[in-house]
């Protein structure tokens, strides 16, 4: 899938902007200090422009050359058949057939047929066939074989191999081995050295610090837990993550005798702290909501300190104190808790802080 995506984008840009390279058949290598023109072949290098190596190029619409060694500026496109050094700036596209060793700035895309060692900034996409050694910043996508620095994109970063720096994207990051990934929706990788942060899903072979509701880590831990707290709320939750960090997502029901049935939803993050062989402490930060789905809502944010003991290869029991902040409309007058460390009696909504507990057992999958 990723190879198809790479070749589709590369084929699109090359077909659109490199066709002009075939118009010149000159075998004679020529150099020029300055190349000025309108669009190929209306320029100071004429029909032989594709065989020229230029130090400075300036074109109203598009420039065509064999190599650029210092600076190239075009209103729409710079098309360089082999190598580009220095800086290339184009209103739409910079296309380099082989290697780019300087900076590239384009309104739409930078496309490099081999490797790029300088920074790339594009309004839409940066596409490098092999290695992008410099930083890549794109409004939509960065697509490369491997990356030696950070990749920042409004939608997605895709590296077929490894990324030595950070991948930051609004929607999706995908790589082989990577230092860190941050995305609005999902991250996919083989091995992640640092943090893997996503709005919903992390997928990896190895990632000790995944931060998302759902984490599918090959060498990590997944479990199904049943919990009970001081409000008489039972929750069935799915916990998933790496050796240290994990995500929590659960649903449940409040069994306290109230006038209305109250249904529960919770989500949060946790961290395992190993102590001895079968004993560990789980720290959890949870956002918890009880609702009757008719306007009655009870909001609770909790910090849990939960000692846990494994009583078999797949079963763990746990119980510990919690510190909770609650918020609900005062007219609902929920009486789940009687004693508060602090409460606000003067506002429209009731707010309070109290100590509670959380206990349960989990089946490790």
Give an account of the 3D structure.
It is a single chain. The protein is mostly beta strands and 365 residues long. It has two domains: 2-161, no CATH class; 221-364, Beta Barrel (Porin). Helix content is 4%, strand content 63%. The protein is elongated and about 90 Å long. The two termini are 30 Å apart. Residues 14-27 have low confidence and may be disordered.
Question: What order do the helices and strands come in, and which of them pair?
Answer:
Elements: H1 2-17, E1 30-39, E2 42-43, E3 52-59, E4 62-65, E5 67-74, E6 77-80, E7 87-90, E8 93-96, E9 99-100, E10 103-106, E11 109-112, E12 115-116, E13 120-122, E14 125-132, E15 136-138, E16 141-147, E17 151-153, E18 156-159, E19 163-169, E20 172-174, E21 178-183, E22 186-188, E23 191-198, E24 201-204, E25 206-211, E26 214-217, E27 221-229, E28 233-241, E29 245-254, E30 262-276, E31 279-291, E32 297-310, E33 315-329, E34 342-344, E35 349-364
Parallel strand pairs: 1-3, 3-5, 4-6, 5-7, 6-8, 7-10, 8-11, 9-12, 10-13, 11-14, 13-15, 14-16, 15-17, 16-18, 17-19, 18-20, 19-21, 20-22, 21-23, 22-24, 23-25, 24-26
Antiparallel strand pairs: 1-2, 27-28, 27-35, 28-29, 29-30, 30-31, 31-32, 32-33, 33-35, 34-35
């Amino acid at each position: 899938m990723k190879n198809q995506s790479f070749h589709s984008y590369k084929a699109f840009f090359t077909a659109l902007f490199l066709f002009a390279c075939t118009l010149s058949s000159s075998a004679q290598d020529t150099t020029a200090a300055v190349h000025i023109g309108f669009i190929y072949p209306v320029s100071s290098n004429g029909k032989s422009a594709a065989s020229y190596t230029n130090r400075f190029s300036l074109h109203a619409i598009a420039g065509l050359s064999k190599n650029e060694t210092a600076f190239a500026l075009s209103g729409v496109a710079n098309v360089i058949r082999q190598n580009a050094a220095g800086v290339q700036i184009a209103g739409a596209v910079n296309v380099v057939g082989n290697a780019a060793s300087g900076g590239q700035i384009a309104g739409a895309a930078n496309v490099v047929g081999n490797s790029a060692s300088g920074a790339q900034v594009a309004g839409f996409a940066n596409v490098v066939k092999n290695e992008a050694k410099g930083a890549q910043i794109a409004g939509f996508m960065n697509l490369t074989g491997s990356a030696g620095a950070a990749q920042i994109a409004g939608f997605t970063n895709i590296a077929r191999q490894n990324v030595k720096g950070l991948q930051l994207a609004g929607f999706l990051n995908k790589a082989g081995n990577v230092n860190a990934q941050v995305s609005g929706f999902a991250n996919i990788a083989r091995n992640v050295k640092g943090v893997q942060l996503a709005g919903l899903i992390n997928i990896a072979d190895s990632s000790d610090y995944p931060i998302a509701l759902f984490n599918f880590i090959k060498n990590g831990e997944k479990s199904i837990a049943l919990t009970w707290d001081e409000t008489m709320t039972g929750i069935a939750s799915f916990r998933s993550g790496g050796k240290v960090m994990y995500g929590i997502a659960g649903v449940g029901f409040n069994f306290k005798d109230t006038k209305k049935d109250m249904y529960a939803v919770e989500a949060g993050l946790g961290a395992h702290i190993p102590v001895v062989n079968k004993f560990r402490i789980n720290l959890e930060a949870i956002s918890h909501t009880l609702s009757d789905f008719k306007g009655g809502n009870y909001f609770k944010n909790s910090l849990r300190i939960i000692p846990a003991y494994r009583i078999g290869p797949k079963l763990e029991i746990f119980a510990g104190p919690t510190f909770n902040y609650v918020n609900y409309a005062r007219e609902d007058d929920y009486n789940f808790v009687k004693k508060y460390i602090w409460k606000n009696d003067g506002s429209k909504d009731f707010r309070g802080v109290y100590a509670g507990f959380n206990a349960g057992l989990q089946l490790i999958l």
